[in-house]
Design goal:
The chain has 481 residues and is α+β, with helices and mostly antiparallel strands. Helix content is 64%, strand content 10%. The chain has a four-stranded antiparallel sheet. The radius of gyration is 40 Å and the shape is elongated.
Length: 481
């Protein structure tokens, strides 16, 4: 019995075993349950969320909208995301092409000399003595050329759906990459808006400081005159002057903050540092709307949630493909072209050659590697499920935190407004009492210092209100269409 005959029964056994196990391996793997969100955000009723609005409906400031448009056109992170989408799209094309037969055009030529004392050498030598051969069919000797021009094809028939699942996984990755770009867009819109309003409120705080500088300069002039009139001493003059210098240093600090913020914003806009054109008034610059919507429907808008879901689906498809790789595969090869050992006869009708071969192959030695790949795919799928659950939890937490932050900052702002009014009245009262001799210059200084701190704190709290609304808009997945 030849070696070929010994192997044939073994291959047949492998094919039968593969067919018997195919019923089990082709069953889809059950995917574990993902996390479920609560029916409503704690302490808030269902409503139509602001995330359903485009940014030009949320932000009213035309100068901010112009900056957002510039950022969306020039931001480098967004451009890199577009290139990642193109790479993912190429992977989908490659996976799609793998399902179809591959066809290659081939032009080849070679030569071989058989040994005189080999079966081929003796056979070729003896063949040329046959009376049945004409001159065109005589074999060249001692070197035998071989020319071929034609098409060669190979095709793995996707009988189990392995290649289809690989294509599906690549498609889900493409969709995840697109969602990643949308997530960058959402974050970019929010960050541009935050930096813009940071600049607007820094301008407001700078105005507060400069107004207080004017008041304090007047106070220094007044205390100096009173010293000359004998109603104050040098200590009072120096303390008022020290307070003025401290406030002027605050002015420089805020100028530095403005410069740093402008530079950070210019990076997002994809340009070198330059002055940011911005509004001087906060009236009607943002839609002050804290509606969130139903968690399950609104969080599903978030691009990072959708991205995680697509990645979960892609790893699930990879797991299915890794499972199906353990089954036998059907491969078909074919050839069509002209083949001859004489170049002048290559394109004659008699040189036409073709063949087709189909075979069923089952993994034997490499099953350990394939099973290891399946285990890895299972672990990746489980990790993707946990990552999805984490994104959902984080998203819910961000929305809930933003909603509460809006509520609390509004209450704090109301108290701070009242505090500023009371302290401003206290400054006026202390000045009147000082002129009447019932208050010291130290009490005036403390009152003025308290007003500055309260006004700056009020501006910070109001800025936090805007930031909370912007963060809510981002955490709900707003900022893209």
């Amino acid at each position: 019995m030849t070696i070929k005959h010994k192997i044939a029964p073994y291959l047949l056994t492998v094919g039968l075993l593969g067919g018997l196990s195919g019923c089990k391996l082709t069953q889809p793997i059950q995917q574990k349950q993902a996390i479920e969100t609560p029916e409503a955000f704690q302490g808030f009723s269902d409503s139509t969320g602001i995330a359903e609005l485009k940014w030009d409906k949320v932000f009213k400031d035309k100068k901010l909208l112009a900056l957002i448009d510039t950022a969306l056109a020039n931001n480098l992170d967004l451009k890199m995301a577009m290139q990642r989408i193109e790479m993912a799209r190429t992977s989908v094309r490659m996976r799609k092409a793998a399902i179809l037969p591959s066809v290659q055009a081939e032009v080849s030529g070679g030569a071989r000399k058989f040994g005189d004392y080999t079966m081929d050498g003796v056979g070729n030598y003896d063949t040329n003595f046959s009376t049945n051969l004409d001159d065109d069919r005589l074999l060249p000797a001692p070197i035998l050329p071989d020319y071929f021009v034609g098409l060669k094809s190979s095709w793995e028939v996707d009988i189990w759906g392995k290649l289809k699942n690989r294509r599906k996984g690549a498609l889900y990755r493409l969709l995840a990459t697109e969602k990643a770009r949308q997530a960058i867009t959402t974050g970019l819109v929010a960050e541009v808006a935050q930096l813009y309003y940071d600049l607007v409120f820094l301008d407001t705080e700078l105005d507060i400081i400069r107004k207080n500088i004017i008041l304090q300069e007047t106070a220094v002039e007044t205390i100096t005159i009173q010293k000359e009139g004998g109603r104050a001493n040098e200590l009072g003059v120096r303390q008022f002057a020290a307070q003025l210098l401290n406030t002027k240093s605050l002015e420089v600090q805020f100028l530095q903050k403005i410069n740093d913020t402008e530079n950070r914003l210019n990076v997002l806009l994809g340009r070198f540092p330059e002055k940011i054109d911005r509004s001087t008034s906060l009236e009607q610059t943002i839609a002050l709307n804290a509606e969130a919507g139903i968690p399950a429907s609104m969080l599903s808008r978030r691009p990072d949630v959708q991205q995680s879901l697509f990645m979960l689906s892609s790893y699930y498809a990879d797991q299915q493909a890794a499972q199906l790789a353990l089954l036998p595969s059907l491969n078909i090869t074919a050839l069509l072209g002209f083949n001859a050992f004489k170049s002048n006869l290559l394109f004659s009708p008699g040189s036409l050659a073709y063949n087709a071969l189909g075979g069923l192959t089952a993994p034997v030695i490499n099953r350990i590697a394939l099973k290891s790949e399946l285990k890895r795919a299972e672990a990746q799928s489980q990790e993707a499920l946990l990552a999805y659950n984490k994104v959902v939890l984080t998203s819910f937490q961000e929305v809930s935190t933003s909603l509460k932050r809006i509520q609390y900052t509004k209450r704090i702002s109301d108290f701070k407004k009242q505090e500023v009014q009371v302290l401003q009245q206290a400054v006026a009262t202390s000045q009147d009492l000082f002129l009447g001799g019932y208050a010291t210059y130290l009490e005036i200084i403390m009152a003025q210092k308290s007003v500055i701190e309260a006004e700056l704190t009020l501006a910070e709290v109001q800025k936090e209100q805007y930031f909370a609304l912007i963060e809510l808009y981002r955490s709900l997945g707003g900022g893209w269409e």
